[in-house]
Design brief:
heterodimer, A: alpha+beta, Alpha-Beta Plaits, two-stranded antiparallel ribbon, two-stranded antiparallel sheet, 16% helix, B: alpha+beta, Aldehyde Ferredoxin Oxidoreductase,  A, domain 1, Aldehyde Ferredoxin Oxidoreductase Protein, subunit A, domain 3, 3 domains, 24 strands
C-alpha cells in the first residue's frame, strides 16, 4: 500500500504542450494545444460523448497515472458485464451495480449507453479532498492509479463530493456495508472490465510516461 | 445466503399488506426461478381459481444467478394461472430478459408473489428492502413507455419497471408485461392477469448486492462461456466479430443482432452509414452475445425488440416483396409493444384472418377490419388498436386466436386448428416449430411432436433441441430453416450422442426415408424437459442454453455442464451435471402434479387431427399410434402412470409426499395406481 512519501510532488520539466483528443479509439486526432484548445474542450457539448486523453504539463503535482480505461461508446451494448465483473472481483464476490467502479449510465428507451470510467486525473480532486489522506498513488503495482487505502478511509465521502463537482456521475462510490469509499484502481494493472467486456468496448490505455486525463483538462459538471 | 437476497416478497393487494418469507424455505431444493415458483403455485393457487380471480398468484421469480455476472442472467420467470391457455386457464410460465431481475435482487428480494385485487389502479414500489403500494390512477391508460418515463421522474432513471399497456388493463388474454424498450413476459396473458389485479407496474431499485460463493470460479466459468459463445465486435462494425469466421451461439449459430430483422428496405438503410438509420447490438444484463439489436432512424419508432416482435408482421413482406423487411415490418412490432399486446399470438391471428378472408368466411363487414389490406399499415394499426381497446371484433380477438376462433366455430375454427396444434384442454399456444423447417409443411421430427404434446406452453420456446438442427443447417451454409432434414443427420450425430447418449438419437427417419423413427424420442424429450426446467430455474437464456451445438468446432459438440457449474460457483452448493438432472426430473414431476390437479391427463397430451393427416415436405407424417407409444414410454421414464399422472411412489421418492397426499385426497391418484 502506498505511504505518505508517495504523495510527494513529482515535478516534471516537460515543456510539451500537446492535447491528444480521442473522439473514439479508432479515430485518433492530435491537436496543438493552447488556452483556446482547452476552452474548446471544456466548452464542447460533445465532450461527454468522447473520452479525452490530454497531455498536460503545467501545474501537475502528482505522478501521472500510467493507465486509464477508455470507452468506445459505439460498441457498447449496455450489458453491464463491466459493472458485474468489477464488483465481483473487487468486492469479494458481492455482485452489484452499486459497488462497480465503472458506472454504466443508460437511457434504455433511446438506447444511449455510456460507460463512465475513472479518469485517474492529473490533479485528482478526490485525493485532494480526503481529510485523512486515504487516497494515494498506487506505486506498488506501478500503475500510479489513484486508490483508496481502505484501512485509512473514515467514510467521509468528501472524495465523492469533490469528484462530483466536476464529473457526473462521481467516480468514487460508497460501500455502505463496509463504510468505506471505493474507486477504480485499475485492478492493479489488469482491469477486469476491459478483460471481460464481451463487445470490446473498453480499452486499457497505457503509457510509461503517464496519461494526462481527467481534471483539470476535462470538466463535465 | 450465497446467490440469494434471502427474502421472497408476498403482496396482498386486497388488504394492501406485505409479508416476507425466507427464500431458504424453497432453496436449494427447488433450485430457483420456475422451480421455486412452481412450488409456490402448488401451495397457494386454488385449483378452481380463474386466471382473473383475485386468488390467482402472479409470481415473478429470479434464480440464484440473477444479480451476478453469470452470463445471460438478466432473466426472470413469471408463473401463475395463465389467461392464454385454452380452453382451460391453467398453470403456465413465461420468461423475460432485460435488466429488471438483477435490480430486484439488489433491492433485497428473490421473488415477488402478488395476489388479491386492488380497489383502484396501483403500482408496487420496491427499494432496498422497503415496499410500498402507490396510487397509479394517473398511469392507468398510458402506454408502457410513457408509464416508464413517468415513473422514472418519480423514482429515478435507475429504477427498472415491469408494466402493462392498454391490453393488460382491458384484461386481454394477449396482455404482456413489458420492461425498458421491448423486453417482455409475452406469452401466457399475464399482462391481463396483472390488469385484473389493478396493478399497473412493479418498480424496483436496489443498491444492495448478491453474494457469490466462489468469485474466482465464477469469473473463470464466465470467461469460458464467453470464449465459446462470443467475440468482441469489430471496431466500427459492431455486429461483426473481430475474428473472421467466428459464429455466435445464437440458436446454434446465427450472427450478433440477427434475430431482429431480415434483408430489405430497413436493413439496407441501416447499412448505409449516411442514412441516419442504425442497428447496434443491445444486450440483456451480463449477456456476452447480444442476439437482438437496437434500431434507430429519423422516421421510425426506435427501440429494442426480440425476434417475436421484429418478425411479427411478415405479411407486410409478402404484400410488398420488393421492399422486403421494411420500416413497416419493424414498426408493427413496436406498435404491439405500445399497446402491450403479445406479438406471438399476432403470429397466429394474422395468418388465421388471412385464411378466413381468402376462404370467404370472414369479411371486412363481419369484422370491421380492413382484411383486404392485410400486410399494409392500415390493417395492423386497426387490428392492434381494436384488440387493445376491445373494440368491436377486437373484443373477440382480445381473447386470443384460439378462443376467438372456437367461439366463431365452423370453418373459422377449423382454420385455426393447424395454427394451434395442441388439442385437449391445455392448448392456446400458436405453433412454434412442431415441424423443423417451418410451418406448415417443414419436416416431421418425432421428438418435436412429443415435446409439443407434453409441454404446458409452446415447447420450442426452449430452443436447445432445435439449436442442433438450426446449427447444423447454418454449418452447412443454409439459412437456419432451409436445409433438408436428411442432410442434417450426419452433422448432428456427434452432438446428439453427447446430448442424449447415442448417435441413434439422431436417426429420425426409417432407412427407406419414408417413415419416422420414434424409439429415441422419449429419452430425448425427457432430457429436453429436464434441461429446460433447470435453465428456467437457474435462470439462464433460452437462446443460448443448454449449449448443445458449437458452430465453431469440428464435431460441433457443445457443453451441457455450463449451467450447473455456474450454479455451484454462485451458490457454493455442489451439484454435478448428473445430479442437476435429478433435480430437473423432480421439478418436471412437480409441474405435472400441478397440471394433474388442474385436470390434465394423457387425453390432453394430444395434437389436432390435422397434424396426423398432413404430410411433411418429404411426404412423411406423424402417426397417432407412434405418438401414443412414445408418450407411454415417456410417462414410464418419468414414473407417471399411463394416464400421465405422477404415481404415489414416485412422488414419495422425489420427497414430494405432501403433493402425493394432496392428489390422493382429491382422488387423482390412488395407491393402486402407483404399484
Amino acid at each position: 500500500m502506498a505511504n505518505e512519501k508517495d504523495r510527494s510532488l513529482d515535478r516534471r520539466d516537460s515543456q510539451e504542450q500537446v492535447v491528444r483528443k480521442t473522439p473514439c479509439i479508432s479515430r485518433r486526432q492530435f491537436l496543438k494545444a493552447g488556452v483556446a484548445g482547452f476552452a474548446f474542450l471544456a466548452g464542447s457539448s460533445g465532450v461527454r460523448d468522447m473520452l479525452e486523453l490530454v497531455a498536460f504539463a503545467e501545474g501537475e503535482q502528482l505522478a501521472l497515472a500510467k493507465g486509464v480505461v477508455l470507452v468506445d461508446k459505439k460498441l457498447c451494448s449496455g450489458c453491464r458485464t463491466c459493472e458485474a465483473v468489477c464488483s465481483t472481483y473487487n468486492s469479494s464476490g458481492r455482485s452489484s451495480s452499486a459497488l462497480a467502479r465503472v458506472i454504466l449510465e443508460k437511457d434504455y428507451l433511446k438506447g444511449d449507453y455510456e460507460a463512465n470510467t475513472c479518469f485517474q486525473c492529473v490533479e485528482p480532486l478526490c485525493l485532494q479532498a480526503c481529510p485523512v489522506e486515504a487516497i494515494k498513488i498506487d506505486k506498488k503495482s506501478g500503475t500510479n492509479a489513484r486508490i483508496v487505502d481502505e484501512e485509512e478511509c473514515i467514510g467521509a465521502k468528501d472524495c465523492i463530493g469533490a469528484c462530483g463537482s466536476v464529473f457526473t456521475p462521481p467516480r468514487p462510490r460508497f460501500d455502505v456495508e463496509r463504510g468505506v469509499a471505493i474507486k477504480c484502481h485499475l485492478c492493479f494493472g489488469d482491469p477486469q472490465c476491459v478483460k471481460f467486456c464481451p463487445y470490446g468496448a473498453l480499452e486499457f490505455k497505457w503509457s510509461d510516461d503517464g496519461v494526462r486525463t481527467g481534471y483539470p483538462i476535462i470538466k463535465e459538471g | 445466503m450465497n446467490g440469494w437476497a434471502g427474502k421472497i416478497l408476498r403482496v396482498n393487494l386486497t388488504e394492501r399488506k406485505f409479508e416476507n418469507i425466507p427464500t431458504s424455505d424453497y432453496v436449494p431444493t427447488y433450485i430457483g426461478g420456475r422451480g421455486v415458483a412452481s412450488r409456490i403455485y402448488w401451495e397457494e393457487v386454488p385449483p378452481d381459481a380463474g386466471a382473473f380471480d383475485p386468488d390467482n398468484r402472479l409470481i415473478f421469480a429470479t434464480g440464484p444467478l440473477q444479480g451476478t455476472m453469470a452470463p445471460t442472467s438478466g432473466r426472470f420467470m413469471v408463473v401463475g394461472k395463465a389467461a392464454q391457455t385454452a380452453p382451460v386457464e391453467a398453470y403456465c410460465r413465461s420468461g423475460c430478459g432485460g435488466h429488471w431481475a438483477p435490480e430486484l435482487k439488489w433491492a433485497g428480494f428473490d421473488a415477488v408473489v402478488v395476489y388479491g385485487q386492488a380497489s383502484k389502479p396501483v403500482y408496487i414500489w420496491i427499494q432496498d428492502g422497503k415496499t410500498e403500494i402507490r396510487d397509479a390512477s394517473k398511469l392507468w391508460g398510458l402506454d408502457p413507455f410513457t408509464t416508464q418515463e413517468m415513473l422514472w421522474k418519480v423514482h429515478g432513471k435507475e429504477a427498472r419497471v415491469m408494466t402493462i399497456g392498454k391490453a393488460g388493463e382491458t384484461k386481454s388474454r394477449l396482455g404482456i408485461i413489458i420492461t425498458d424498450s421491448g423486453d417482455a413476459s409475452g406469452q401466457g396473458g399475464y399482462g391481463g392477469v396483472m390488469g385484473s389485479k389493478n396493478l399497473k407496474a412493479i418498480v424496483v431499485r436496489g443498491t444492495g448486492s448478491v453474494r457469490v460463493a466462489r468469485p474466482k470460479e465464477l469469473m473463470e466459468v464466465a470467461r469460458h462461456i464467453r470464449s465459446l459463445f462470443s467475440r468482441p465486435s469489430k471496431p466500427g462494425s459492431p455486429l461483426e466479430p473481430n475474428e473472421p469466421g467466428f459464429t455466435y451461439n445464437i440458436w446454434g449459430g446465427q450472427g450478433r443482432g440477427q434475430l431482429t430483422g431480415a434483408p430489405g428496405e430497413l436493413w439496407n438503410l441501416c447499412s448505409d452509414p449516411n442514412s441516419g438509420y442504425e442497428r447496434l447490438p443491445d444486450a440483456c444484463y451480463a449477456c456476452p452475445i447480444g442476439c437482438r439489436t437496437r434500431v434507430r432512424g429519423p422516421d421510425i419508432t426506435s427501440g429494442v425488440a426480440q425476434c417475436t416482435q421484429s418478425n411479427m408482421y411478415l405479411e407486410s413482406i409478402m404484400k410488398d416483396p420488393e421492399k422486403g423487411y421494411s420500416k413497416l415490418t419493424w414498426e408493427a412490432g413496436r406498435m404491439a409493444d405500445y399497446y402491450g399486446i403479445n406479438a406471438y399470438d399476432i403470429h397466429g391471428i394474422n395468418p388465421w384472418l388471412t385464411a378466413c378472408y381468402e376462404e370467404g368466411v370472414l369479411s371486412n363487414k363481419d369484422t370491421g377490419l380492413p382484411l383486404d389490406k392485410i400486410g399494409e399499415r392500415e390493417f395492423i394499426s386497426e387490428l392492434l388498436r381494436k384488440i387493445a381497446y376491445r373494440e368491436g371484433f377486437g373484443d373477440l380477438l382480445a381473447e386470443g386466436c384460439q378462443r376467438a376462433a372456437t367461439k366463431l366455430g365452423g370453418k373459422p375454427e377449423k382454420l385455426m386448428w393447424v395454427l394451434y396444434p395442441r388439442a385437449g384442454k391445455f392448448g392456446g399456444y400458436r405453433e412454434h416449430w412442431l415441424y423443423y423447417g417451418g410451418f406448415p409443411d417443414g419436416y416431421a421430427i418425432s421428438p418435436l411432436a412429443l415435446m409439443w404434446v407434453l409441454d404446458n406452453r409452446d415447447a420450442m420456446v426452449s430452443h436447445n433441441f432445435m439449436s442442433q438442427l438450426w446449427g447444423a443447417a447454418t454449418s452447412l451454409g443454409y439459412p437456419p430453416n432451409f436445409a433438408e432434414a436428411e442432410e442434417l443427420i450426419p452433422v448432428i450425430k456427434p452432438t446428439m450422442k453427447y446430448a442424449y447418449g447415442s448417435e441413434k438419437a439422431a436417426e429420425f427417419f426409417t432407412p427407406d426415408g419414408k417413415g419416422l423413427k420414434w424409439d429415441w424420442a422419449p429419452r430425448v424429450a425427457k432430457r429436453f424437459f429436464e434441461r429446460t426446467i433447470l435453465k428456467d430455474s437457474y435462470i439462464v437464456c433460452d437462446v443460448a442454453f443448454p449449449f448443445l451445438y458449437n458452430p465453431n468446432s469440428g464435431d460441433h459438440v457443445g457443453d451441457s455442464s455450463l449451467e450447473s457449474k455456474l450454479f455451484t460457483a454462485v451458490t457454493g452448493v455442489e451439484m454435478s451435471e448428473g445430479e442437476s438432472y435429478e433435480a430437473g426430473d423432480m421439478l418436471c414431476t412437480l409441474e405435472r402434479a400441478i397440471q394433474a390437479r388442474e385436470g390434465r391427463t394423457s387425453d390432453d397430451d394430444v395434437l389436432r387431427d390435422i397434424c396426423f393427416t398432413n404430410k411433411d415436405a418429404a411426404g412423411r407424417q406423424y402417426h397417432r399410434d407412434d405418438l401414443e407409444r412414445a408418450k407411454a414410454e415417456y410417462y414410464k421414464l418419468s414414473g407417471w402412470d399411463q394416464t400421465g399422472t405422477p404415481t404415489l411412489n414416485r412422488l414419495k421418492e422425489l420427497k414430494l409426499s405432501d403433493v402425493a397426499e394432496a392428489l390422493q385426497r382429491k382422488g387423482i391418484i390412488t395407491p393402486d395406481q402407483s404399484t
